[in-house]
Specification:
13 helices, 18% strand, Glyco_trans_4-like_N, 2 domains, alpha/beta, Rossmann fold, 13 strands, transferase, six-stranded parallel β-sheet
């Protein structure tokens, strides 16, 4: 098999991390494994293994034919047979297939609003594009069922994300007191619901002012992040809640933290949850997307979406009980290393690509 991963950007995000992880993991399993970034490079480029051929299409517009033809040259040169298109890169993949009909497209759906998938804005475009799809991979069961119902490619499979952590020699130093840091690994997007986090932070500050919250994830410099910053100041949380932007050295920030949280109103299968677990971090997370299939009560604490009181209470329990933190962190680490590592997922992936099951 000769497969190339297709992704619009290599800035830090869940879909982008998985594109890089698949490219790296497949390099030892198949004849050719490469990666193409269509629109923008980013920090994740540095995580590509040296043996993974890479191409930057430098697409300037939706219909950038120069970028398309240059990319076709890369595809032909490496005799690529399968385009594994992540998220919105499916459109570029379809254009490539039109000018190189022998290509097979595997579309990987990472849609972050999976709990509201019926409201998907690009549904008609996806329905048209799906006539060109060979296989569809979904990051949770809701997305799998939606594709089976709405799209024209019926070879659809749920495959969990897997964790592939690159060990870093150095990295950012978090603010706050060692042993009293709460980490939220999530880009600053509305579905991540940082408003719940701020409400919880206010409650924790009242009883445990030495505990701090650390928000690591891309800041899009939009209305959402602007309002978030204003609310932090309005709530006098400047010394309790810290924003860092994107950080490539995930292992470094996790190992400086005591508890991992996610306050989302919708998720697929968050890579950050798998990363928390890989390093044995105890977690408090909202019960959205595929999270309840990973967290079961003994390996983490599940909270109903939007429930500030329950979220606060769960954090207070963990803050007060270091033994419980260790127990649930260890249990989650065991589950992640058993079910969400590359070996098992890649095996199922290659079987699905080859046989459709």
């Amino acid at each position: 098999m000769r497969i190339v991963q297709l992704i619009d950007s290599l800035e830090i995000g869940g879909a982008e991390k998985m594109a890089v992880s698949y490219a790296n993991a497949l390099s030892a399993e198949i004849s050719f494994s490469g990666l193409i970034a269509t629109r923008k490079e980013g920090a994740l480029k540095d995580e590509l293994q040296s043996d993974v051929p890479y191409w930057f299409a430098n697409r300037k517009s939706v219909l950038d034919f120069k970028a398309l033809w240059r990319t076709r040259t890369f595809v032909k040169e490496h005799k690529v047979s399968i385009l594994h298109a992540h998220s919105s890169s499916f459109f570029f993949a379809v254009l490539l297939k039109i000018i190189q009909p022998s290509l097979k497209i595997v579309w990987h759906d990472h849609y972050g609003y999976s709990d509201f998938v019926s409201e998907r804005k690009n549904k008609r475009l996806l329905q048209w594009a799906s006539f060109f799809f060979y296989r569809i991979i979904a990051v949770n069961e809701k997305l799998k069922n939606w594709s089976k119902k709405e799209l024209h490619c019926k070879k659809v499979k749920y495959l969990p994300n897997f964790v592939a952590v690159v060990d870093s020699e150095s990295g950012i130093r978090l603010h706050g007191t060692e042993g009293k840091r709460i980490l939220c690994l999530a880009n600053l997007r509305p579905q991540k619901n940082h408003w719940l986090l701020l409400e919880v932070a206010k409650n924790i500050k009242n009883s445990h002012p030495d505990w701090t919250f650390h928000l690591v994830g891309k800041d899009f410099k939009d209305a959402y992040s602007e309002q978030l910053r204003k609310q932090i100041h309005a709530s006098q949380l400047q010394h309790t809640v810290f924003l860092y932007g994107s950080v490539a050295e995930v292992d470094v920030v996790i190992q400086q933290s005591e508890i991992g949280i996610l306050t989302s109103i919708s998720e697929g299968l968050p890579v950050s949850l798998l990363e928390y677990g890989y390093f044995g971090l105890p977690v408090v997370v909202t019960a959205v997307g595929e999270i309840p299939t990973v967290i079961n009560g003994t390996n983490g604490i599940l909270i109903p979406d939007g429930d500030t009181g329950s979220f606060t209470e769960a954090l207070l329990q963990l803050i007060a009980d270091p033994v419980k933190r260790t127990e649930i962190g260890t249990a989650l680490q065991k589950d992640i290393k058993q079910h969400y590592i590359k070996e098992s997922v890649v095996r199922d992936y290659l079987n699905f690509i080859s046989n459709g099951n």
